[in-house]
Amino acid sequence: MARTFSDGVEGQPGAAPESTLASGILAGAVTSDVQTGHGARFPATGDFSIRFESASDPTHFEIVTASARSTDTITHGATTFAWDADDLIFMPYSKADMESFVQDGDLAAYQALSDDVVTSTTQVVNTTTETDLYSESIAGGDAEAGTVYRLWATGDVLNNSGGEVTYTLRVKFGTTTVLESAAIGYGDSANRAEWLLDVVLYAVSPSAQRLSGHFVPSASQGQSWDQITGVVPRQLVGYGTATEDTSTAKTLAFTVEMGTANANADMRLHAAVLERIA
């Protein structure tokens, strides 16, 4: 089947500089003439790949390296096959070509949310002041309509104070407290309980956001991987909205407020990842 020209498809004519041979060439040829006026579609200097492809059979092709182009004549490495007039000649995309099609601002937006990976421990201990366990600023303009962010975080909690300690958890976006738990009571124990947090932020528009959150603690303190049966009152599922203006930077935060200040009662975050997933 003959290949037809199409726009914007990697490795096909129309997606990169393309033409057809103005005249046939023999095996071992080191120059090729493209159609009149088409030479300007190709680089004049510098090494670049060109692909010869049969007009009647796209599975028959070869790729050689070209070194120069003068008017409509391309100088290249020796061909393995002979090629006929009107066979295709074009530049397949390289990795560098593909990356160059992403605008600098767009590339930065996608990179910014894959580089916020937290692997250091944050501990909140011996205080009743609401304190960030995690926070990250989302740059102005990066939460435009249709974008989605996801935050994963994990850590543990300890209450070895000799009595019950309460923990109030909140998720905030900008100045808005979007999700807020009741005061969760933890009884005295020398062992830590693990927890996992999953938050998704949906940007409906630059001034309207929807957030969902799921907080899951382990069932019994002291186990590294435990069932969650029996801790339904401590497992949190929530949904809320915000109307923050995301044309300026806004911070996504996960906080804890403890009801009692004690050196043997704390909450720790061990790792977190914020991703832009849409």
Keywords summarizing the entry:
278 residues, mainly beta, seven-stranded antiparallel β-sheet, six-stranded antiparallel β-sheet, 2 helices, 18 strands, 5% helix, elongated, disordered N terminus
- Structural shape: elongated
Task: Determine Rg (CA atoms, Å).
Answer: 30 Å
How large is the count of helical segments? Answer: 2
Mean pLDDT: 85
| Secondary-structure element series | EEEEEEHHEEEEEEEEEEEE
- Give unreliable regions as ranges: 1-14
What is the rounded distance between the termini? 37 Å
Give the SSE layout.
Layout lengths: L17 E3 L10 E3 L11 E9 L7 E10 L2 E4 L11 E3 L4 H6 L3 H9 L3 E3 L3 E4 L5 E8 L9 E12 L5 E9 L2 E5 L3 E3 L6 E13 L2 E10 L18 E7 L7 E9 L6 E12 L2
Antiparallel strand pairs: 1-6, 2-5, 3-4, 3-6, 4-5, 7-18, 8-18, 9-17, 10-14, 10-18, 11-12, 11-13, 11-17, 14-15, 15-16
Walk me through this protein's architecture.
With 278 residues, the chain is mainly β. It has 2 domains: 18-100; 105-276, no CATH class. It has 2 helices and 18 strands. The chain has helices at residues 95-100, 104-112, and strands at 18-20, 31-33, 45-53, 61-70, 73-76, 88-90, 116-118, 122-125, 131-138, 148-159, 165-173, 176-180, 184-186, 193-205, 208-217, 236-242, 250-258, 265-276. Strands 7, 8, 10, 14, 15, 16 and 18 form a 7-stranded antiparallel beta sheet that branches. A 6-stranded antiparallel beta sheet has the order 1-6-3-4-5-2, with no helix packed on it. β4 (61-70) and β5 (73-76) form a beta hairpin. The longest helix is centred in the middle third of the chain and has 9 residues, at 104-112. It starts with 17 loop residues before the first strand and ends with a strand. 29% of the residues are buried.
